[in-house]
Design a protein that fits this description.
about 130 residues; five-stranded antiparallel β-sheet; mainly beta; four-stranded antiparallel β-sheet; 9 strands
């Protein structure tokens, strides 16, 4: 398996404190992941367009990744290697594994983490 590596998507939001995933909505067109920045009580909605799949796991189930990234590094990452997409791509029946335009993103919260496979980086919706 590849070594896990990821880079921050929203570097301007790194020092905002601990984050918790508070809501997830999927309607076949968009995936919206709402996070709360606990120190400021700010709630942000990240919108993913062209989502192929997503999974929600407790942070303890991603223990190996915390040796590479922590919430001090950020809370939304583009996974470069060794993540869920890499794991699924080892299956011969996983069709999107060979398509380079699909990328993996990871949103980490204190308890809940969301992995997303999508064609585009998320955007933060205005007014959220």
């Amino acid at each position: 398996m590849q070594e896990f590596n990821a880079k921050v998507v929203f570097p301007d939001k790194i020092n905002d404190g601990d984050v918790e995933v508070v809501n997830i909505q999927y309607d076949l067109e968009f995936l919206d992941v709402q996070v709360s920045i606990l120190a400021t009580q700010e709630v942000l909605t990240l919108r993913f367009d062209m989502t192929e799949g997503f999974r929600v796991l407790d942070e303890r189930d991603l223990h190996n990744w915390w040796q590479v990234i922590t919430m001090k590094d950020g809370w939304c990452f583009k996974v470069e290697s060794g993540g869920w997409l890499s794991q699924e791509s080892s299956r011969t029946d996983f069709m999107i594994g060979s398509l380079e335009y699909y990328k993996e993103f990871l949103i980490i919260g204190l308890d809940t983490c969301v992995s997303v496979i999508a064609q585009k980086e998320p955007v933060i919706l205005e007014g959220t």
